[in-house]
Structures are given as structure tokens and as C-alpha cells.
User: What shape does this take?
Amino acid sequence: MRVLLLVTIILIHAACNNTGSNSEEKNLDHEATAMPPTNSNWQLVKRFTFEDCTPYGISNFDRNIVVSDTRGNRIVFFDTLDHSIFLDLERARPGFIKIRRSTLLTPSMKMDSIYAFKGKGFMALENFAPMNHPTGVDGYRIDHWAFVDNGNNRVLFQNALKGIQHIFGKAKGSDFRLSDPQNVLIIDDLIYVVDSGNRRIQIFGEDGQFHGSINNGDNWIYPTGISNEVDTLYVSDAEANRIDLFTIQGKYLESITTGIDGPTDLNYYQGKLFVANNNDKTISIFKEVD
Assistant: This one.
């Protein structure tokens, strides 16, 4: 009980990390120009090893890192100061997690549900269509969210306050089709979907329309991780062992290719970039330098 109360207190003080800005360029279809990989603007400041945990998804609050261990059927809360695990939660095959406004959002690929955690146990979130093998989630509230319904190659989106419900990925046309989608990010009124099987990011709007895509040529093999900091987008590809940075309009900025090993997910938080390295069971922390 004392542990749960502590987590509740910590989560109450957590800030929502999804503070994007409106994109002036709504219609885009940008293929990034191939650039030499570089770490010139990013410095690896810390790297933590998890001997009994294989990080897959990652999020943050306060001084703590939260990782999903899909193979171990668990979610681990990790203190970056004393390198201790202070909470270990059982959850069947958790996918790409996010902490939004004091709430941990967790897809369970085995239970075909999305769960919310606030320190007093998991609560299954209601959705308007059955899901198969959900892998990713993002949301502002429990009634304003995007769920990646991986097994059905689609994304479910709802904003109850506006009376909006959409299903992305099933419309006709190659620009609307999704193949093995893994993750999702909401930035204002745009929904960024990691369309892993098609090696691209597809962008949809709350209006239900397709707003463009971000491609990275042959540099991507199987992108999965996505995060943002205001107008910068971060995408990780564990198979290609790289992290690529873009503007949210899709213009290529730079890449990180060292200090990582199979980056399945990443999260920009309080001036640092946290990366889940699935291959060597580590967390890399980068900061931008001038």
C-alpha cells in the first residue's frame, strides 16, 4: 500500500510530455534526403544496464524511467539516481507505453486491451471497436486517445468532447493503408502513426483525413519508436540501429547512430532523449549540445 501511495504522489506531479505545436503545413508528403549519419549535436550522458529486464517501450516522470518488458510480461519503474527498481508490475505482453497527464497508458498485446494506471491498479479503457494485438497508445484523457490495433492494421481514434471517432488504415488507396503499425503519437490535432511494415510515418487529422507521410528512403528497415519535443520529431528503428530527427512537417534534421543497440522506443523528456535498447538491455540517455 505504501508503494502504491508513493507512485500516486509521484504521478500527480508528472507533467504531460506531449506539448507539440500546430503544424502550418497540413498537407505533406516528404521523403527525407539521405544524409550521412551523425551524432554531432547529441552527447551520450548515461547508459543503464538492465540485467533482468529487456526494455521495449519507454516513458518518464520526474526522475524516473518506466519501461515495458514485453518478454517478461512486466512494467518496471526505475529510479535514475540510485539505479534501483522500486516498482515492478505484472502485465501480459505490454507494448509501447506512454505517461500522459499523471496516467500510465499500457497496451496489452495478449489481453487485446489498453490499460490506464494511476497507482491503484490497472483499469481497462473503453473503446468503440474490438482490437487484436494492440501495440501502441497515446492520449490526452481517458476519452481522448489513439490505439494501435496492430492485428487489424488500423488505428482507432476518439475525442469524446468533440464527438469524434475514426478508424485509420482501412480506407482505399496506398496513402491510407497501414501495414503492421506499431506505435502512435498525438500532436495537437494530428495523429502520427508508425506504419512499420511500410517503413514510414503516416499522418492523419482529427477530421479523419490523410495529411501526409514521412519517409526516410532506404535508411529505415522497421521503425517503431516515436516521440516529439515541440516541433521536432524523433523516430527510432531497432533493425537499422538508428534514430532520425525531423521537423513535424517531415524535413530531415539529423541522425543518432552510436550509443544505441536496437532502439525499439524513445522518449524526449526534460531536455534529454531516453532510448530503450532492446538488444543489449540498456537505456541510453542523450542530451543535445551546441
Notes: Residues 1-37 have pLDDT under 50 and may be disordered. The two ends are 45 Å apart (CA to CA). Residues 2-18+35-288 form a domain with the Neuraminidase fold (CATH 2.120.10.30).
